[in-house]
Amino acid sequence: MAAMKIIAICQSGGKFVTGKDGCLSYKGGDAHAIDIDNQMKFEEFKMEVAEMFNIRADSMSIKYFLPGNKKTLITISNDKDLQRMIKFHGDSSTVDIYILIEEVLALEVSNMPASRSSRTTLSETVAAAPTPLNVCHTPVADTVLDDVRDTNQIYTNMGMDIPQEVLPSVPPNSSNDEKYAKGAQQWQNTITGVGQRFSSVHEFRESLRKYAIAHQFAFKYKKNDSHRVTVKCKAEGCPWRIHASRLSTTQLICIKKMNPTHTCEGAFATTGHQATRSWVASIIKEKLKDFPDYKPKDIVNDIKQEYGIQLNYFQAWRGKEIAKEQLQGSYKEAYSQLPFFCEKLMEANPGSLAVCTTKEDSSFDRLFVSLHALLHGFQQGCRPLIFLDSIPLRSKYQGTLLAATAADADDGVFPVAFAIVDDAESDDSWHWFLLQLKSVLSTSCPITFVADREKGLKTSIAEIFEGSFHAYCLRYLTEQLFRDLKGQFSHEVKRLMIEDLYAAAYATKPEGFQNSMESIKKISEEAYSWIIQNEPQNWANSFFQGTRYNHMTSNFGELFYSWAADADELPITQMVDVIRGKIMELIVARKAASDHWETRLSPSMEEKLKKESQRIHSFSVLQSTCSTYEVCGDVTEVVDIDRWECSCKAWQLTGVPCCHAIAVIGGIGQSVYDYCSRYCTTESYRLTYSEVVHPISCTELSASKDSQLVVTVTPPPTKRPPGRPATKRFGSQEVVKRHLHCSRCKGLGHNKSTCKV
């Protein structure tokens, strides 16, 4: 197996500063770089760091942030921690490491069970050891202790062992002096004695649990089935006992025997409480409805304060998950509602397409959605330009979101269609998506697709949208370049190559393209050859035959992807409806904003026209034919006024006359606005947002539960696997590695610990 390499940027001597959003930033200090891989041992890494900063190895702690989380510091204390950190950052080239000299509090490990069987609800607690007197409390240490419990959810989702430094410790019982916690006082008499009746076994168990919580003791089941329950106090030798069974010919459960005496003075101090996940969910559900970001650590604190119960982090997290499902609905039920949901979505929005397909076993396969308001807006007001991209979903059953977005007259994101597919992004999925898109688009104008250059997508676009153009995404092209030529270039060299590649792509003339490519050739002939062989006619302005309006990357629709990313943990029907709601709000907001525009062009296009007008200085305009003009300035360009073309290509690329065309148009006494593309006008913008998206009422969705559906849809067989979910990918350029720099000999490619000088 090939070693996974990464550059560790080690920093020491600075301090952490907490921002208004709670995120930590590291200020000051010194930094050095170390090459590490998954073969390196922790002690080897620690000694190298200690030597680098000239500090004692036993006096420092080594920490890092999880990707995308600047609030939680994770400690590296053994080989497993180091390998986990490398795995977390496997998609990145570098990782920031922080060396703290302070003595940070070592958290005690809770031995409360993370799960329990259906036959027992016992959760045991071990009191934490007293806080050592020699602990050095610092702002950094306090921040770490406050935030570190948030990390447990990540490890829970990953199915991995949890490092000791992020397990929650269980504090000593601080409520022994107060017999009953405030919230539990109401439950003291839920069990009254022999003869008390309950409507079901479930009601009896819940009442018994509340009774035990109120009286602060733990119990265990001796018998527990659908018609009888026998329970005794868990404390050894304690005579407390209760037996209930079903009354004959009824479903009622009656207490037949009970010894209410405790000789153990309650088993609270050593064995915890009968707090199941369902009980936690019932307690927090109402608050979770008002505060969706209710954190498990806050749940632990609140239940401790209100009910005197010390939960561990996992009980709180799992209880929250159950409460979320109770509030949001079942994932499984959401899949079964999909056919009805699609039907009602199309009924509410005539002219839309919402179609769901299943596999042979009736499990979910794909869902395609394109609303009439979006199709009408694209075909009436948007440029014939579509961006294709995808993002992975973090939902319980994973999946991938495929999306087609467009650019409105003000260069804003306009969704056209989207799909959710069970399999990862694949050739078949894109082919199916494009077939559905083709079926709802009635435009005869050739469309330019800005997308990845993968073989399947390239073939599908050419086959399904015959006569259209495929413009390669420059971001994907750049990433592929450095993957194929991995490890050959330093950080600075990569940065320069990226700049030259983008300059070559944006160049409007072949000579400009070639000048930028020559700069790359001077750096690396291999990179030059790779770029030339990868079809510049599909990504360089100077050779591309279609019209991409200077949009070079496919991630133009990041606004839309953020909507999906924010809702992807909801059941599938709710996620789609959230996206529909966001689209509805977008249309209403932009339509209202455009009502106040008084210019002929949209604001961004007016600004472009203004900038081009300011570039006119001492141009000399000479007429060649009735429609052709020669514009002389620093360079000479040819303008064809009838064909709306300039040899500089800026007019064709943007749809707004360039400075050369403006000089000609002004010279012949005509309005420059008459020569602007209709896709740049306020009128087109208003046409884009002229239709509305209609909602589906909650009563209609509720009715689907009782309806007899012809098509049955079950959840896909794949669930979220162990491991950290992929971080959200937004941005147009990849992160490139920093090059090692030796502080001893000032050479490159090594540090002072491996220096031969």
Automatic annotation (TrEMBL):
GO terms for molecular function: zinc ion binding. Keywords: Metal-binding, Zinc, Zinc-finger. Signal peptide: none annotated. The keyword Zinc-finger applies. This is SWIM-type domain-containing protein. The keyword Metal-binding applies. SUPFAM superfamilies: CAD & PB1 domains. Residues 629-669 form the SWIM-type domain. Pfam families: DBD_Tnp_Mut, MULE, PB1, SWIM.
